[in-house]
Amino acid sequence: MLSIIGFLTIMVIVLLLISGRITPIMGLVLVPVGGALLAGFNIVDIGGFFNEGIDSVISVVIMFIFAILFFGIMQDTGLFDPLINKMIAMTKGSVVAVAVGTVIVGAVAHLDGSGASTFLITIPALLPLYLKLRMSPYLLLLLVGLSASIMNLVPWAGPIGRAGAVLGVDPSELWRPLIPVQISALLLLIVLAAFLGIREKRRIARLSSDDNAQAEAEVAATSEVVEPEGVKRDSSLARPKLLWLNLLIALSVIAVLVWGIIPSGLVFMLGLSVALPLNYPKVDDQMDRIKAHAPNALMMAAIILAAGSFLGIMNGTGMLDSLATDLVMILPAFVVPYLHVIMGVFGVPFDLVLSTDAYYFALLPVVEQIVTSHGVDSITAAYTMIIGNIIGTFVSPFSPALWLALGLAGLEMGKHIRYSFFWVWGFSIVLLIVAFLIGVI
Q1: Where are the domains of the chain?
Q2: Rounded to 5 degrees, what angle do the CA atoms 34, 37, 42 make?
């Protein structure tokens, strides 16, 4: 009975998230409580499960809040602008160089882990160049999306934090073994970008003069597309004279995270406490910067806390254990030990039908419970599912940042999926193989 209620609880959450009829916070709180009551637990029991769940994710919540604030401040100061501008200047005139440069620009822009800010930085800067060279803007979206997805492995982005909450592990500890995977992925993506650039160059060579005239007209209209009201960045916040000092602070924060000598939440607290008054000495300006980035920080923190409630109730009631045990009895015996691998291989297609929250908070806990009972390490199971799925982040219609990108570039979701899907899926499978070869999974 517990298995049936647990399965129904997870399915209801997934369906509600897919349909967009409920926010992740409401779904992750209300549905498990209803399931626990249906299973015969009283409100006092549920309160105890809730406390256990919150205790398991509170360190992740602290890290997210201060990491988002810290990197938001770094973006405000213009820390990444010189490198991005230099890359854009270096790539002009060469289709292949533009494609490769797009990868680097996208990776640097996504250092803060925010998809929205990444697209706000990259698309207005690069789209006119793409149109001028008659390159497909869908290629721009593919390359920026892939580079941002690779950078999404940093612990202050969403997926690693969600996986850390599920496993009860500090996200920075999960991230450190993934650094070689990130480096390998970026190198592979540069190779893929060069190949796609050569392919694009050949396509352009076949275009007619009419196509060229149309491209020039699109360039003229670009400013109306990529600079809508409310998107322009406030240049008064930039601190070019403090560029090297801000770079030193950012590199120090990342170095201490990799070193792992103190908790990641404290690292970002210290980084923010140093960077904020240094760049904005007036208290009112400091509060304005915190208020500007607080919505993103609060939203992520609220989702992780709701997930803690969900996991605490599902574990405390025994629904997850029961569901995993019964699924093992139903699935073919030869499939069970490799279930995480199967989920990893099909991680990108899952992005088309599952939101990030549904994948990590509903699917990952069940798969992890099943495969660990057959001797698979829980971290290995998580890495396989993360690497297989994370590359598809920005080909998913459930990504709000992707809709922003499509609006900025004037593109269509359906065409983007048709253009990018198989490149993204193929890249994720190659990356899984690389992770296996270097011993991460």
Answers
A1: 2-437
A2: 135
